Amino acid sequence: MRYISVGSAGQHAVTFTQAVLQGLSKNGNLFVPEHIPKIDAKQFVGGDSLARYADVILSQFIDEGSDAQLPLSQMSARAFNFDTPLKFLNPNTAVLELFHGPTCAFKDMGARFLSELISQMQKIGSAPMPVTVVVATSGDTGGAVAGAFYLKPDIDVVILFPEGKISKRQEQQLTAWGDNIRAYAVQGSFDDCQRMAKDILKDSHLRQRRNFVSANSISLGRLLPQMLYHARAALQYFRERGIPPVMLVPTGNLGNAVAAIWAKQMGFPIAKVGLITNANRTLEEMFLTETYRPFPTVSTLANAMDVGAPSNVDRLLQAFSGFVEINKNVFVCTVTDQQIRETISQGISRWGEVWCPHTATAAFAREQLPFEHCIICATAHPAKFETIVEPLIGQQVPVPESLSWMISRPTYVNRVSADSKKFIERYL
Ligand SMILES: *Cc1c(COP(=O)(O)O)cnc(C)c1O
Q1: Which residues of 256-289 are buried (b: 16+ CB within 10 A; e: fewer)?
Q2: I want to staple 110 with a disulfide (CB 3.0 to 4.6 A). Which of 68, 76, 86, 222 is the partner?
Q3: Do the strands 181-187 and 414-417 form a parallel or antiparallel pair, or are they unpaired?
Q4: Residue 301 CB less than 6 A away from ligand 1
Q5: Residue 10 confidence (pLDDT)
Q6: Judging by DSSP bridges, how do beta strands 155-162 and 181-187 pair with one another?
Q7: How do residues 43-81 score in pLDDT, each as one tens digit?
Q8: C-beta 304 within 6 A of ligand 1
Q9: Mind listing the pLDDT tens digit for each residue in 93-135?
Q10: From the CB of residue 104, how many other CB atoms can be counted at a distance below 10 Å?
Q11: Does 282 sit in the ligand 1 pocket, CB within 6 Å?
């Protein structure tokens, strides 16, 4: 499989390794697979592990040139050392729990695979040594990346997060590392952090003396492994209930949702992909007007979805021939903070579940579609957002072990202004 940049069919196709190392194409566009291979779902039996899905699916995407030397099975076995269980809640609803990884959010899946990938690419000589991984985070990405790369030899990590705009426990997960992980609290918004990360990655002087790789959600090293749990959950659901479910995906930068769309296009039984957003209305406006226009980010209770310019939007548009086809496969549902609050408050009585604010958007969307078969993607553990969740449900949320370990660690953080030039001079 080779990768082309959106809007330039056929030209400059690159391997998976090259796409991951480069991040964006020379003309600044996203890479996408040349085609989406069809998979025969009969190859999978019930109870197959994620690592087995990885063997069958990823080997179709990672096979060109030096990519073929990557030990995919070994990488997946190490990366996916936790499960993504599908839990049925009633006859036409299941929840896909994506928060059992070390930092209790679905981003562990992509970040841990990317970490294995870069290490293995270094071992076979297709990635440079040392490498600096750069990531801007609106909440959960940084923690997952930090945890995944912690103490990896020949790799260090620079994390940029907006000071004061993430939950205390999210911040703890970014800053509890030290060693090869450096976290910077930027005095600005997530968009400032993203701009600074871009400035670092495209600074040609800097690149002459240091190797950089992006770990943001544009990275195919994060995006491809996210197909695995969508594929497996859809197949499990279909075998249990005989009907392809709608996949309800709490959405910000569209990384998780594009992975679901690609899994659907491979032939896994997904009826539709629901892009469930918070009050950031960019996607809803795009579906209404059939043109993409970014909006300034607004802060919401579901902060990891506070995105006004979703970075994977071109991959969504490229996956279909136009809006007629998009509307057959994908829909948008926008959820306000008030609706998030109500959904969390009623979560235990209605569903027997404590929702995190992100997952609550999908649970709300589920309640709007009473007759459909749906999978709610639970993207984070509610204990990460206890200051929002606990007052609404009137009880404490038990803290998973990995989170309590992190909460007890000392933190390392630098406060910096949102000035790329100064940042590069001073810290890189
Ligand atoms: C990152 C994140 C999202 C949004 O995922 P995208 O791939 O950016 O669309 C949703 N929920 C949680 C908990 C997240 O961390």
Answers
A1: bbbbbbbbbbbebbbbbbbbbbbbbebbbbbeee
A2: 222
A3: parallel
A4: no
A5: 62
A6: parallel
A7: 888 778 898 999 999 999 999 999 999 999 899 999 999
A8: yes
A9: 999 999 999 999 999 999 999 999 999 999 999 999 999 999 9
A10: 28
A11: no
